[in-house]
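re: ur question from earlier - yeah i can do the single chain one, its not a big deal. heres the input i used so u can compare w yours
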Amino acid sequence: MHPGAKISQGRSKGQQRIQSQNDYLRQWLPRQQSYLHHLLDREAPPEDRRCIVCEQDGVYKCQDCLGEPLYCTGCCRSQHHHNPFHWISQWNGQFFEQSCLAQAGLVIHLGHDGKQCPALADRWDLFEGDEHEDQLEPEDLPFVSGPEFQPKENTMVIIDKSGVHRLEIRCCDCPNALSPDIQMFRHGFFPASFNRPKTVFTFRVLDDFLLDNLECGTSAMNYYSKLRRMTSSMFPHLVPDRYRELMRVARQWRQLKTMKWHGFGHRSDIPSTGELALFCPACPQPGINVLVAGDESLDDDDKNSPSWKYTQSFVMDGNFKAEHLHPIKPFDEVWLSDGLGFMVGKDRYKMHLAEAADMVEKSSCNNHRAVNQANAARHKLESTGIGGVACARHGCFVPHSMVDFQKGERQMNMDYALCEAARHNMEGISRAVTFYDINCQYNKHFRARVDASRFLEMTQDLTIIPGIGLWHVHGHQDSCYVRYASNFIDGIGRIDGEIMETLWAPRGMSSPHRQECLDYQMNDSNFCKMIRMKRTLCRKYKLAMNGITESGKAFDRLDEAAPAHLKTEWSARERRAQSSRLNDPEAMDEYEINIKKAPSRKEIELRLLEEGSARNAAPSRRSVATWISTGLAIEEAQIALLIEVRRMGKRSTETQRLDIARQRDRLQGQIDGFTQSALTHLGEGFDADDDPDDLNVDILDDLDDDPADFSKTSDAWTNSPELTVIPLPSNLGVDRCRHCMAEDLIPLEMSLREGQANDTLHNLRIHLCNKAVLFRTSVRQAKSQALKTRAWSQVTSVQQAVSLHASIYTQTRKQMMKLEPGQDQLQKFKPLLREQLKISTAVGDPNARGQRNESLAWFWSVEVDLGGPDQSWNEEFYRVHWLRAKALQDRWKEEMTLVQLEMDWTCNYFSWRATQWGDRMRESLEKRLPGHACYSGRQSQMYSLLAQDAQAAFQDLQSVSIETGDE
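and the output i got, formated as tokens:
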């Protein structure tokens, strides 16, 4: 037996190794020369060179027929009667050269089963003069002759997915015959003109182009360039140019297909707003997938159902890649589907923009681009981008809710989009959650803007709950997280993310064409999500099962250790916060640590600036508080960089060294700017060229690591910016400040140093409490090595923050000592010792058993108010951890409930569609429209199969989950 067979048999008994793509390449390499030989051998004809049909002399080889058979002239013509767009080549005695079926005498007859019409006369003049001829420059003409450059007389240009062909087409000329353009259309040809066409496009090429455009982003120009190269590899520029015709005919074809898909071939009325658009099958749509009796409302559907059962979730976003130039002749544009799909109708939208007040609000949160740069107009562009609304849970675009931007992402644009989205199949739904990057700012006056506009409509019964996606909320102020993150919104479950980045349309299109392209892309996106909804919901179901298990374990660990009376109190506070969030977002701060800390550095800086302005300080002293505060920030950055460098050690990677080099470069720039400003604030007695000693920082860390793990400062660091002593009054000393006439800066720096010390001690307390909670809930409860590794990784991350703030405090106090502090300051800000950074159970409960001789370090009580005399640090942190763990568990439970509802709604949607098309089929049969009936039957079957497939998958998944739960 061959040794390879033994290996194969051995593997078959166990698990066979799956071969990689490289394995297949290695197997092919020895066969490469053989493949190449046979590839070249196909260039020659068989030795007898016989026609495979009649065995006469074979002249033509068809490159598209299977096996590239040889035909004589007559058989080539007859065999391609129903395949007129194959490419053939002709034997010239030495090799096969390119030819075409027109040279073989092929003629396409329309009507009479492909045979010539008995009444046909020579009426080729019907097809003359309706289209322009291609104009070629003399230098473009070839100096050779061949079949491809000598089109036969009376041939038409036919564009197929196989290339550009020239063939003769003969129409039926019987007395009752249809017009030539309709005859062509019924045979699968779309004429480029309608009176005397000379160019037609096959339905195949139009479908192929639209699919290429959707899947590959292929433009019409690139697609037609491909067809020209497929037609002639040597002289593609000589192939007739029908790029503009392709653009126009594709628009017409796209419109016809869209109307066909949405049933308007079966209706006598014309489409209205948003009726040429698909929407999400899994979102609640009363009357479609949510069935309610005539007099009942959704609230009466099930008294035991949660109040958020019929919540519609929207995500709002913008895309600044879909720009559009101003049209050359806007008055001459033809709109085929204005407002019928996803893009809003232009006329009403323009009237809204003309009347809406352009209020540019400065964000009260962070520097959000969409708010603060909304005035960044680009005058060469008619549209700087698009924005709109989609369902947040599945990412399906909402019909008639996409708008163009004119000056960036302004509130007036998104107001119109949201109001239009809230009108689509929302009858009876009274609760909607909106997710928007800047909802903390946008939602403040939304209702007021709606009430003040003639063109914005939204029912007062609809409650809008603002949210910010998890991806964006971390770029906001810390307070925005608990107020707007989806983790803390009842009834939303776990939502999906971004939606707009895949949309694309060329800038040079006409405005109607661009709108049609965007509508078509969004329709296709929703269709793909619809047919994959079964897989999506099954995946969500499995994630929800796992999420409930994991979040339940995490919450149970916290819940078991919490006293019952505290849990009752925390739950009541949680309910009050959730019920008050709409009118008072600050109520959600219940999920944050409630600690009133001592004045921060920023607060003190603001007070000093206001005092300086009130007493009309001299110009050199007007911004001195900000200058000193900047110096303190630079000092903190130096300490952070120094710790990072020391932690990195000598065996650093190239990426780490590059990151350090970039940080040093930025820091050096800040130091240079600060030193230059010192000349203004310190007076003529200050010399910027002084060379002070290097910065000496004590790094505090309570980990039990070997000190050797932290590499010592090497010679290469001697001139590093993290060791540069900056010219702050504390570094110059009191005597030198007096010499420079800058003695008044000493109390300013002392005040700011107090704020800096307050900040660092506050952060130190927070991180030490987080560390204590992590030990209690994660490290000690970890049952496996993987969980222990993850828990210790979290502890290490927190400990690094502890080391940073401890080191900053130590340096701050050292600088305060240089400024001759008073007795009160010495008593308040004591030295920080390494052993004081050890976490203790006294943090959680000073009165617990065994804590009689153990007390908290001094910094736990420096101007701190927890809101009550009996409340401990750990209790406050434990409350926040408990509330957040409970919120996560609640969201996963909601996710499971919502997914199960969405499974039912999806099946109901497919069944509703199947019934709708079934009714259309019966109506078509009654009207004797067989084609309409056949299409309706096919569509009804498609939706029936989708419903059956989804229902079977959902039932199977739920039954498996039940069995697993029982085990």
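Residues 873-926 form the longest helix (54 residues). not sure if urs matches, ping me
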